[in-house]
Amino acid sequence: MTDLDDFAARLTALTDGRASPPRVRDGVMTIALDVGGLSMEQRDGLAAAIREGALTVPGVTDVRLAMTAERRALRILAIASGKGGVGKSTLSANLAVALHRLGIRVGLVDADIYGPSQAKLMDSEDQKPVARDKKLVPVTGTLGIPMLSMAHLVEPGKALAWRGPMAGNALSQLIDAHWGDAELLVVDMPPGTGDIQLSMVQKHKPAGAVIVSTPQDLALIDATRAVSLFNQAGVPMVGLVENMAGYACPHCGEVSDPFGQGGAESTAGDLSMPFLGRIPLAIDIRSRSDAGDPPAAGEGPHAGAFHAIARKVADWLKATA
Ligand SMILES: Nc1ncnc2c1ncn2[C@@H]1O[C@H](COP(=O)(O)OP(=O)(O)OP(=O)(O)O)[C@@H](O)[C@H]1O
Fold it and tell me: Which of UniProt's keywords are assigned here (predicted)?
């Protein structure tokens, strides 16, 4: 093996296959690097490591790195639940934030026509989207994440009167917006299995769905219904998240399980879908959400639970790209 072959093998391992085979001419090594989906920090770190390694190859005196960001199609990740109030919006906001922190270019859509809450969760209540070329331009939420909400299209209290086509059109306006270089839309779905859900799976074909449930049996039965809607439409299941799992007492720290334990994990097993993890019932999660400061944006005690789930989702997205 030549020194160049040896470096090429190390380069593939270092970049996870993102680099072209290195070429050397007159002492200058040229490499093309696909930086699509990497954060600025990751790009700079990778570029520095490549340069350092390249200059150790005998005869190489200079390195030229051409960075290309392949434009990938916008994929949709639907966050759904069988029933309302189980924390689907909380998970959507925190997942968008955690995926963004992993270097994925996310946009967030609040498709919950009956109770849009993302503007509050992502601290963008004072913004109004404008239209350009008949398409909406997203507003900016926490950490600069672009987002659009049903609340931007409909006056509070009027949405409940909407039926199939109107709701479907509104959803399309949110999805077919100017999402810039976003590669993933996290879509907070309305609870249940109604018109919006059908329009979503038929027209917008999500790349995958995450189902949220609380540990109670009844919620799990509803979750099973949501799973079957996506299954019937051929939308792959990313997995099931158990929210409000175990109550951490803010005074003594003791964790109790008012709704039982392990139900969601075993339901995921019964449905042959991955179990992505559990988020505890914690006052801090509710109060930070109400304040427009998603826990996943910080380093607090509950950020880790959201980040662990985001890592599994990111692995799934990578494996199915
Ligand atoms: N893990 C948690 N710990 C504490 N409070 C939580 C947790 N998850 C969600 N909540 C709170 O529960 C309430 C409902 O959560 P959320 O709005 O995310 O649910 P949802 O499933 O999106 O509801 P809806 O069906 O109304 O859209 C909110 O007040 C939220 O702050």
Answer: ATP-binding, Hydrolase, Iron, Iron-sulfur, Metal-binding, Nucleotide-binding
Q: What is the largest CA-CA distance in the chain?
A: 72
- The structure tokens 């299941």 sit at 237
Tally of domains within the chain: 2
- From atom 8 of ligand 1, which residue's Cα is the shortest distance away? 87
Which residue has the CA at smallest separation from atom 6 of ligand 1? 286
ipTM score assigned to the predicted complex: 0.98
pLDDT beyond 80 at 161 = no
What's the pLDDT tens digit per position in 90-136?
A: 999 999 999 999 999 999 999 987 778 999 999 998 888 988 878 89
Atom of ligand 1 nearest to the CA of 289: 31
Q: Domain range spanning residue 251?
A: 75-319
Q: Which stretch of 46-50, 121-125, 151-155 has the lowest confidence by average pLDDT? A: 151-155
The CATH number that applies at residue 40 is 3.30.300.130
Which parts are annotated binding residues for ATP?
A: 82-89
Entry pTM: 0.78
Same domain for 304 and 194, yes or no, is yes
On whether both 79 and 162 belong to a single domain, the answer is yes
